[in-house]
């Protein structure tokens, strides 16, 4: 999924390696991977998530996507940002 992309082409910035069953390495940057069907079970805060990639295609409407936002927090620098898709939390 990360190495080849039909829109952006092949990833050429760093080597992508599997560190263990839950971690990918992009160069030296470790990225935690979760394989759960229920996004409410993912500890976003504990994992230190700054970005979340949802690539299943299952959570395509506001109600379904809200499960990803249960423990959402905004950093101070993000509080005044606007988005083309306003979320009511």
TrEMBL record:
<keyword id="KW-0560">Oxidoreductase</keyword>
<comment type="pathway">
    <text>Carbohydrate degradation; glycolysis; pyruvate from D-glyceraldehyde 3-phosphate: step 1/5.</text>
</comment>
<dbReference type="GO" id="GO:0004365">
    <property type="term" value="F:glyceraldehyde-3-phosphate dehydrogenase (NAD+) (phosphorylating) activity"/>
</dbReference>
<keyword id="KW-0520">NAD</keyword>
<dbReference type="GO" id="GO:0006096">
    <property type="term" value="P:glycolytic process"/>
</dbReference>
<protein>
    <recommendedName>
        <fullName>glyceraldehyde-3-phosphate dehydrogenase (phosphorylating)</fullName>
        <ecNumber>1.2.1.12</ecNumber>
    </recommendedName>
</protein>
<dbReference type="InterPro" id="IPR020828">
    <property type="entry name" value="GlycerAld_3-P_DH_NAD(P)-bd"/>
</dbReference>
<dbReference type="InterPro" id="IPR036291">
    <property type="entry name" value="NAD(P)-bd_dom_sf"/>
</dbReference>
<comment type="similarity">
    <text>Belongs to the glyceraldehyde-3-phosphate dehydrogenase family.</text>
</comment>
<dbReference type="GO" id="GO:0051287">
    <property type="term" value="F:NAD binding"/>
</dbReference>
<dbReference type="GO" id="GO:0005829">
    <property type="term" value="C:cytosol"/>
</dbReference>
<dbReference type="InterPro" id="IPR020831">
    <property type="entry name" value="GlycerAld/Erythrose_P_DH"/>
</dbReference>
<dbReference type="Pfam" id="PF00044">
    <property type="entry name" value="Gp_dh_N"/>
</dbReference>
<feature type="domain" description="Glyceraldehyde 3-phosphate dehydrogenase NAD(P) binding">
    <location>
        <begin position="1"/>
        <end position="74"/>
    </location>
</feature>
<keyword id="KW-0324">Glycolysis</keyword>
């Amino acid at each position: 999924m990360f190495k080849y992309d039909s829109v952006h082409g092949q990833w050429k910035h760093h080597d992508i390696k599997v560190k263990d069953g839950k971690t990918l390495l992009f160069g030296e940057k470790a990225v935690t991977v979760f394989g759960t069907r229920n996004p409410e079970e993912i500890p976003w805060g504990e994992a230190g998530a700054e970005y979340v990639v949802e690539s299943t295609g299952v959570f395509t409407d506001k109600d379904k996507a809200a499960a990803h936002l249960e423990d959402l927090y905004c950093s101070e620098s993000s509080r005044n940002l606007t988005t083309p898709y306003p979320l009511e939390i």
